[in-house]
Amino acid sequence: MRTENEIQYLMKAIDAFKRRLIVISPDFEILAANKPISDLTGEEPIGKHCYELFYGRPSPCDNCAVKASFGNRRPSLYPKPESLTQQGMMPCYYAYPIYNGEEIEAYVSMDFDIPTIDLLEEKLQRSNAFLEKLLQSAVDCVVAADMKGNIFLFNESAVDLFGYDLKEALSDLNVRDIYPGDGAYDVMKAMRGESYGGKGRLITYRTDAIAKGGEQIPISLYAAIIYEDGEEIASIGFFHDMRERIRIRKELENTQVQLLQAEKMGSLGKLAAGVAHQINNPLGGITLFAKLILEEYELEDGLQNDVERILKDADRCRNIVKELLEFTRQTRHLMQPNDLNRALKRTLFLLESQSLFQNIEVKEDLSENLPLANSDAQQMYHLFMNLILNAVQAMDGKGTLTLKTTADLAKNRVKIEISDTGPGISEKNLPYLFEPFFTTKEEGKGTGLGLSLAYNIVENHGGSIAAENNPDRGANFIIKLPIAHKKTQGEKRGE
To answer: For the stretch 223-243, what's the b/e string if a residue is b when 16 or more beta carbons lie within 10 angstroms of its beta carbon?
Structure first.
């Protein structure tokens, strides 16, 4: 038996129930009712017949849920389509029997509203339209396909990325066509595993996609398998184009490398300047006294050779000091528009008379309409002289030297290429080629500052320099420098 306290709380709960609820005897007499019934009728409902109280009828209604329960002894639901609400909801009446042993003692009846089919269809259409707009407006590509690979969803971002129009994608394209090789198989295998977010899911899966023109695009893929009753029926993927992120990452890496190089160069420049000045003073004394000994004394051959060796090494030291000082004197106060074709030709004219060039074939492929580059003329001469001599020395006095200039107007750059047919550069040496004091030459034949100085000059001009091996033979140095402003070019040319 329930306690009086329990009964009170149950009655309070029934009265607080927002739906109308009554308990009816088998002869349709109201035995109990909650507060919403009293609020509706405005009178005491107990003891009255429900069909008289609610509908003013002399007998029970034909479409009555309670009446239906009399016959089948089961709960019954009767909708009232003739009583639609303004919101498109349809009132319904639900009744179920209360048993006393095997006998039905009474019936409970309550009302509630359910949405009509039309309302459900309208809501479904609105929901589908919203979902479609959401998918179509997504920044990432959205592609869905059945388990045979037939595509049934291809949003606007996918059209832009892959280059297929919507009709083409939905009628002719298979999802396997947007992956290279066995990429689609690998994606499905990964989705069915547990390694990328759990079975049936992929989270941040890195792969490549193939556009209509054949371009291979790096992507980050979020995907899932769609199940129905435990069976795979479709898959959906969200493709994020990684090209811009990769480009930014490379730029950041390059910037970091440049900052480290600049920092290294700055510190090294200060050190080099101090060392150079400290060496110059005693070096002058060594050279002076060695020359005096040769002039004033008749020396035996062995001793004379030793003194000449002193002078030779002193001269080598002087050249090292000179390069060190040049290394520390990079300025930009002479920057102005310059014709780099002219600078290359002038540098070549100054060098071609040297014996080192006797068996060197020079090929010039210089752009006729090369834009002027904003640069320091003297530093350009030094840059080209350094790179040309380096190329000729690499060929050991025999081979082909190629000078090429082009313009990349889209990137506002002038490109200079200096190529040789020498042995090329060892792959292990390529990363260190522009490091100060790094040299592949024999001891005594190089300071390791030439290419480092070239790098510094180019960086000071806001450009870039790189080295690579030619496919056939030899090495290629590529310099890219900013094009001078058009107004400044016109002023320089007197236009």
So the answer is: bbbeeeeeeeebbbbbbbbbe
